[in-house]
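In the laboratory, one determines a bound structure by crystallizing the protein with its ligand and collecting diffraction data. In a computational setting the workflow is compressed into a single prediction: the sequence and the ligand go in, and a structural description comes out. We illustrate the idea with NAP.
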Amino acid sequence: MIYSKLPQTDIEVSKICLGTMTFGEQNTQEEAFEQMDYAVSQGINFFDTAELYSVPVLPETYGDTEKIIGNWLKERNNREKIVLASKAVGPGNKHIRGGGRFTREHLEQALDGSLKRLQTDYIDLYQLHWPERHTPRFGGLNYEHKPEIEFTPFEEVLEVLQEFINKGKVRAIGISNETPWGMMKFIECAENNMKQRISTIQNPYSLINRVFEIGNSEICHRENVGLLAYSPLGGGLLSGKYIDNQRPEKSRYTLFPNYFKRYQHENTQKAVEEYTKLANELSIPPSKLALAFINTRDFLTSNIIGATKMSQLKENISSIDVEITKDIEEKINEIHFNFPNPAP
Ligand SMILES: NC(=O)c1ccc[n+]([C@@H]2O[C@H](COP(=O)([O-])OP(=O)(O)OC[C@H]3O[C@@H](n4cnc5c(N)ncnc54)[C@H](OP(=O)(O)O)[C@@H]3O)[C@@H](O)[C@H]2O)c1
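The predicted complex, in structure-token form:
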């Protein structure tokens, strides 16, 4: 495994982070325990979760993933060995505090709920799951200006997060699904008000969605913020298993065809076919090639992988050993140029 520091901190994290949003829906607690045990045995010390999970989002399963992780931490008695990341929801889900906000009241309730379910008294990296502002996200490409939609001022959000840090409930902070403007505002506001700077931004990033490279990645370099890449396989598409309209049993897009519509574009299929062809030429499983590309980006702090089966988890973690040569990168970039960002 490869390790680096979470930017702005002394916290060391593995280049591969274990995503957990299937725990409590596609994966039982027993399967989740097996995944977490195996991940740790391979040197992974970084887990990502959220109050919102399991996914797909349902009122009945709200908080279930955190509960499973909490049970595991208690049973294994290894809290201090894991760097735990969780998130407070943004607006949109009525069953969570009537729709999430980043006001003091909402953030305090969100954090206390997560701490309780996780059976811990601190979260290493506390993230805002998506902006309160009206921004393009989860498949949106265009920014529509809607000034009438209110949001909690950056200063107030940072003040509450700083208090969490001062109380020892949180060690570092991050944002997610953010735009370059939002990222810069958090940084600027922290500097102007002597508050904690964001360490990370957790955005989607994969061979079929490299939008992050356009605006956000420069900020990562210039402002020392790390990307935590999510959905690095586009939800499993980049494994190649859906090619030719195959619908593999018990797989995400077979089980929940309407939930993730943004991944269904025709050009996504074409791009995936090309990446799969390249992987076959290189005699590498397509998933490993796709993940290795993400692992090796210089603005990445950690690649948040997801798996529902142990065979997937093993394959995905082993992507850490794949080298992306200049020649492979050129071939990948050629496909990207022909099919840019079909699944934003
Ligand atoms: N901040 C956010 O808004 C946000 C959003 C999404 C995710 N996340 C985080 O990122 C993590 C990962 O996201 P993701 O699950 O979308 O990642 P992903 O890597 O794009 O998709 C993972 C899914 O692909 C399939 N898969 C994985 N490895 C495979 C392999 N080797 N061969 C074939 N199929 C394979 C599995 O689903 P099937 O077995 O069902 O096919 C697995 O659950 C989440 O757990 C969560 O922590 C954050």
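The chain has a mean pLDDT of 96. Keep in mind that any predicted model is a hypothesis to be tested, not a measurement.
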